[in-house]
Amino acid sequence: MKRPAPRRTREPTIALINIVFLMLVFFMVAGTLAPSMERDVELVETAALEGRAPPDALVIAADGQLRYRGTVLTSASAYLDRPDSRDRAVVRLMPDRALPADDLLRIGAELRAAGADRIVIATTRSLQ
């Protein structure tokens, strides 16, 4: 009588594939929970700075147009006059890369005159 051939044990690859797929779905969902940035604005690049995502930033387009959460504002001081619970001492700016520096300085001075104590400019990190 012949002995039956020993059966090979199978590796649990299906379980591993399921775990990797669930992690992929988790990170896709977690990445879409953050509010999206204005699509037509390219940020200035900087190197070696620590930063964090600006939750409520005043967006400045290349032509100097000011936007807050998609709403066009008439002036920089109108950003501080909005009736919400936002901290008025710290203002976060997201200027377009093509915005002239003179316009950025003018807007910063207008915000300071309107009562902003600190102005933070959001940039992208350079890979150099």
Automatic annotation (TrEMBL):
Compartments, record wording:
Cell membrane
Membrane topology listed for this record: Single-pass membrane protein; Single-pass type II membrane protein
Q: Which UniProt keywords apply?
A: Cell membrane, Membrane, Protein transport, Transmembrane, Transmembrane helix, Transport
The principal location of this protein is membrane
InterPro entries, per the entry: ExbD
User: Which regions span the lipid bilayer?
Assistant: 12-34
Q: Does the keyword Secreted apply?
A: no
Give the similarity note.
Belongs to the ExbD/TolR family.
Record-given protein name: ExbD/TolR family protein
Give the organism, scientific name.
Seohaeicola nanhaiensis
